[in-house]
Amino acid sequence: MKIGILGTGVVGQTIAGKLASLGHEVTVGTRDPAATLKKTEKDGMGNAPFSEWHKSNSKVKLDTFANAAAGAEMVLVATNGMATLDAVKAAGKELDGKVLMDISNPLDFSKGMPPSLFVTNTDSLGEQVQKAAPNAKVVKTLNTVNAWLMVDPGKLQGGDHTMFVCGNDAAAKAKAVSFLKEAFGWKDIMDLGDLTNARATEGLVALWARIFVSTNQPMFAFKVVR
Amino acid sequence: MKIGILGTGVVGQTIAGKLASLGHEVTVGTRDPAATLKKTEKDGMGNAPFSEWHKSNSKVKLDTFANAAAGAEMVLVATNGMATLDAVKAAGKELDGKVLMDISNPLDFSKGMPPSLFVTNTDSLGEQVQKAAPNAKVVKTLNTVNAWLMVDPGKLQGGDHTMFVCGNDAAAKAKAVSFLKEAFGWKDIMDLGDLTNARATEGLVALWARIFVSTNQPMFAFKVVR
C-alpha cells in the first residue's frame, strides 16, 4: 500500500521504518525536504536526525507534505503537536477522501516537564485536524504509547494492553483498526465513538507524561481492564 | 479507627458501609443532617437516598461536615465535585493535620453526557482542596474507578488493575497506601508524586466517562501495564 507519513521525528521514523519493512511504499512528508536532510543535530530527546536515520532506511522517500500525501491510500500525522495543523494544511487537498490517522498530541512543553495540553477538555487536536482537512476521514489513534510500542505492542507484556480509536467515519475506523492489527499486531482496540473522544485520549497523554516522569522509563501502556 | 466521610451520595454510602463492616467508627458528613434524612428521592443515577440506605447501615453516624471530621483520624472527600470545596471549607479547622483523601472529581454535567471537567490541565480539584484546607494532608486517590471497585477492586479481574495516589506529604501518602491495601485490598498502587499529578488522574475520568458511554457499563478500570 502507498502510505504517507507527515513528520520526520522519531515517531515518523519509527512508523516509516516498520511499514517499509513490511513492503509498503512509504513517503515521509516534511515542510522543506532539503532543510530536513541538512539537519544533523539530535532532537530534544536525543533521537537521531532524519538524515542519519535515512541512511539505513533509504527505501523510505522524503518529500513535501503535499507530495507525501499525493497518491497515498492512507496518511498518518506523526508531527510534533505544535506543527500538526500546519502540516495538515500544507498537505491540503491531497488528503481529500483519505483515511487520515492522527497520532499527534497537543503537548505544551513551554514550562518544561511534565507538559500541559494546548487544547483539551472541550476540544481536541484531532477535531482541529478534521476542521483543517474537512474532506479527510480522521481517525485518532496510537497517540497513547511511545513510538516503539505503536508499531510493536507485543514488546510489552505480549501486547496485553489497549489501543483506542475514534473518528466520525465508521468505514475509515474499520480500515484503521484492520491496519493496526495487521501491520503492528494490536490485539485489544476499543472504538470509543466519534472524534470528540479524542479530547479524552489526548488527555490521557498528560497522565502518560507524568507516569514517565515518576517511573523514568517510557515502556508502559494503558489497559482497560473489563 | 475513627473515619469521617464528607458526602452522602453513592460513593459516600459505599465507602462508609464498607468501613463500618470492617469495624471502623464512621461518621458521614453533610451540610444539613436533618435535610439529608428528609430526602426520599433517588439520585440522578437511580441510587437510593441516604435515609433509605441508612436503615440497613445504622452503625454509620450522620452529622455536619465539621462534626464528621472532628475526632476522625482520617477524612475522605466523597462529594459530588461541584460540592467539594464547600464541604471542605465547612469542615474547616477540623481537617488540620489530618490525612484528607480526596476522591471527588471536577465533573461538569451541565451539557449532559459525557461530562467535561470544570478544572483541568493546569489546575485540579485536588489542588483546590489543598488550598481550601491548607493544614490538611491531601492525598488524591480512588477517583478513577466506580464506588464498588473503590472498596473491592478484586471484584474485577482479581484486582489486576492500577490505583494512583499523589500528594505533597510523603507520610500521608504512605498512610493512604496502607489503608487502600488493608481496608479495600488494592494491590497495584502507583505514587505519581506531588498533588499537581491530580491534574492527570482527574483528567483520566474524562476518559472513564467516555468508555462508560461507549460500553454502557461501569465495571472497568485502568491498568498501567509495565
Name a few traits of the molecule:
homodimer; 226 residues; Rossmann fold; 9 helices; 22% strand; globular
Detailed description of the structure:
Two copies of one chain form a homodimer. By secondary structure, the first copy, chain A, is an alpha/beta fold. Chain A has a single domain, classed as 3-Layer(aba) Sandwich (Rossmann fold), CATH 3.40.50.720. Chain A is 38% helix and 22% strand. In chain A, the strands form two sheets. In chain A, strands 3-2-1-4-5-8-9-10 form an eight-stranded mixed beta sheet, with helices on both faces. Chain A has a two-stranded antiparallel sheet with strand order 6-7. In chain A, strand 9, helix 8 and strand 10 form a beta-alpha-beta unit. The first copy, chain A, is globular. The N and C termini of chain A lie far apart (35 Å). Chains A and B meet through strand 7, strand 10, helix 9 and strand 11 of A and strand 7, strand 10, helix 9 and strand 11 of B. Strand 11 of chain A pairs antiparallel with strand 11 of chain B.
